[in-house]
Amino acid sequence: MKTYLVGGAVRDQLLDYPYHERDWVVVGAHPEDLLALGYQQVGKDFPVFLHPKSKEEYALARTERKSGPGYHGFVCDFSPDITLEEDLSRRDLTINAIAQDEDKAIIDPYHGQRDIAAKLLRHVAPAFAEDPLRILRVARFAARYTHLGFTVADETMALMRSMSRNGELATIAPERIWVELSKALGEQNPASFFEVLLNCDALAALFPEWAASFTPALLTLVDTAAAQALSLDQRFAISCSNLDASSCKTLCQNLRASNSASWLAERCAANTPLPAMESAEEWLKVLEQFDYARRPEQLANFIAIAQLLQPSETRLAILADAGEQLSAISAGELMSQGYKGAELGAALREQRLAALRAITGVN
Ligand SMILES: Nc1ccn([C@@H]2O[C@H](COP(=O)(O)OP(=O)(O)OP(=O)(O)O)[C@@H](O)[C@H]2O)c(=O)n1
Fold first, then answer.
1. Domain for residue 94, yes or no?
2. Range of 91's domain?
3. Same domain assignment for residues 247 and 289
4. Residue 176 in marked binding region
5. Is 8 annotated in some ligand binding site?
């Protein structure tokens, strides 16, 4: 039995990039051998084990063959005679198909190191096409490594384009798309994720309206949001900001976006560009949509987004100020004057509108 470090940890070591997880491959062993050594089996579809002490993942070397559509149509062979090279050949990208043995020697049958030097995201083999989720992974790796100069190899882009056009993406579970998207939004250049997916027609195949809404300026802003360390929800909201509110809502549902991401994105789509707000009622309506009194941070999140999208919009600073001033209006004084119930609500609203008229100068 031999054990090799594989995947992201080897890749990121070679890239001198921080990694957080180590994955191992075991060659020449039966599941029983690992169980006898105290490993704990966790994989359902194929045998993956947790090391008794480190709890790192150890997988038996395996081959995979697609036997039908979707995610369960795979036949795995994890017999002890599967070689390291065979295991590496089923992996998505050459830079992910490098192994390191116990003596730190690198085993690189698919020339991942060459592609690291050439800064190319290149698929290992035509079997890449058996797993359409890999299109999203490639786009995500582009988002992570663009700043190092990485691009997608032409032949990989061509393969991804033909997969997209063949309707392969429809078999991906929406939950998995959201997982990849939210990871990509957390990377240094999330715009590259969208650029790759636009370039290979995957975004048009998955979400045509969203794909059509991207402009070069919007892509730049998605990266600016990352550079300014805006939150994932804010980055997502920016990426949806060219949609109207109802398309954004549909997209969030189809993507199975998290509640907090949908909440912000839908309200941002509805309020960028900032509406006319020609009356105090309309100002209050915008503030109330962001729940300014209970969740002032959400109004601030929106304003930061809107400032990126509309840097010359002077009403944003006024909106922020109005949110703060209105939050300070408390029901206490009105209650001591004997207001309660619906009357109290109406009187509070009147105070807020009066404050808004004073702050904004509209009626
Ligand atoms: N659809 C997939 C998923 C994973 N892999 C392979 O399994 C390894 C481990 O996958 P994962 O932990 O998801 O990714 P990492 O490459 O480790 O990247 P990250 O840094 O994002 O964890 C990858 O390197 C790749 O070789 C693959 O070929 N195809």
1. yes
2. 1-118
3. no
4. no
5. yes
